[in-house]
């Protein structure tokens, strides 16, 4: 048994892996996947018979290393992380270590580092500050850091999250190569059940207990599909009557950090009621583009940008911008205060803050309870975010983005961390919102099953160069 702060526990987990066998741990959100990963790496107290036998003559380090979903960044001033907008402030990034500096602290071998950066198609990150990495780039950086100091057991928590198609294929090959060189892999796999080729066994968890342990080829036969239901008739949706013609308009927009151009000559119009997919490989500039819209990036003032028909930089405050936008991103999730309750986290969406600092109106309080009830989360209302699974935390922050009925909804990889049933329900929820209200949508995802049916326009970025076109739902798989 393993216990986690907050009371969550794993019970009756029993499995064995032999040499050359690799495990995928899967299960619904909140089933205990990350808790088990932490327990296997000695980060949680365990009672019972956990035994890991290391080969005495194996040259690899005899320990377990955990590659978590997000790497904790320490700056030159010895502070940790900072704030989520820091990525877009160039002066702040001067205090951050570069990718090369961080990797050389593990192994001072620049030739090998260059080789791995090229293998993972990120040689351009070599001199980039860690704080400027996108979520997908961050994942590949973490993997390189682990490869530079190989161990006999490597546990990876959702390594495919946030990666584009080509990066997922490359990661699959790299994991196979790591396995053949003597490292045993345990991989947490969530919503998409993308089991790497090197995996030989599957452990499925359910509510902190073992549901199934089997060889990979037998798992699909035993796995039964479920549906995460919600009652759409109970959703507190309102038709948005906010008056504007264009939610977003950009003219010849460009963003540059030092010698590197992130975005160049972007001309983009998002009309009221449009539903856009923003696509591109990891590091193409998608999140940077959205940061200019949401007001997190100071380079917005150096460009011609219109929000809700008004030019940026004409006297509006950051709060004037944010009040009309519902927003969710991997960076927001990473930096959000996990010590507040689920209720307060949702309520903070009314004020676009990371905590609740103002008194709610009765109608706002009732609206929160209606959303929690509609998505069957009312029992978690007073639970701290830190005490629930990362998937449910993300679901709470998604409600936060929806709570004020915003005229513009910006969702940057919103289904990260949701299990497949929550993902199915959330995609349907977005379609319901867009069908029943006049909400304008900008959406990012690398997975076809996460794309709502309402999406009918695409802005594709390739090294900052835009391609804009309309699509039909049946052709969307070819462009993800």
Q: What is the molecular shape?
A: globular
- Read across the widest sheet, the strand sequence of neighbours is 5-6-7-3-8-9
Specify the structural class: alpha/beta
Count of separate structural domains: 2
- Indicate the percent of residues in helices: 25-40%
- CATH class group of the largest domain: Alpha Beta
How would you describe the overall organization of this protein?
Keywords: ATP-binding, Nucleotide-binding, Transport. InterPro entries: AAA+_ATPase, ABC_transporter-like_ATP-bd, ECF_ABC_transporter_ATP-bd, P-loop_NTPase. GO terms for molecular function: ATP binding; ATP hydrolysis activity; ATPase-coupled transmembrane transporter activity. The longest helix has 17 residues. The protein is of the alpha/beta class and 480 residues long. It has two domains: 221 residues, Rossmann fold, CATH 3.40.50; 247 residues, P-loop containing nucleotide triphosphate hydrolases (Rossmann fold, 3-Layer(aba) Sandwich), CATH 3.40.50.300. The protein contains 13 helices and 19 strands. The radius of gyration is 22 Å and the shape is globular. A six-stranded mixed β-sheet has the order 5-6-7-3-8-9, with helices on both faces. It has a six-stranded mixed β-sheet with strand order 15-16-17-12-18-19, sandwiched between helices. 27% of the residues lie in helices and 22% in strands.
Helix and strand arrangement:
Elements: E1 2-3, E2 9-10, E3 23-27, H1 33-40, E4 45-46, E5 61-67, H2 99-104, H3 110-119, H4 135-148, E6 151-157, H5 165-180, E7 184-188, E8 201-206, E9 209-215, H6 216-222, E10 246-257, E11 260-271, E12 275-280, H7 286-294, E13 304-307, E14 310-311, H8 318-322, E15 325-328, H9 330-335, H10 342-347, H11 362-374, H12 390-402, E16 408-412, H13 420-436, E17 440-444, E18 457-462, E19 465-470
Parallel strand pairs: 3-7, 3-8, 5-6, 6-7, 12-17, 12-18, 15-16, 16-17
Antiparallel strand pairs: 1-2, 1-4, 8-9, 10-11, 10-13, 13-14, 18-19
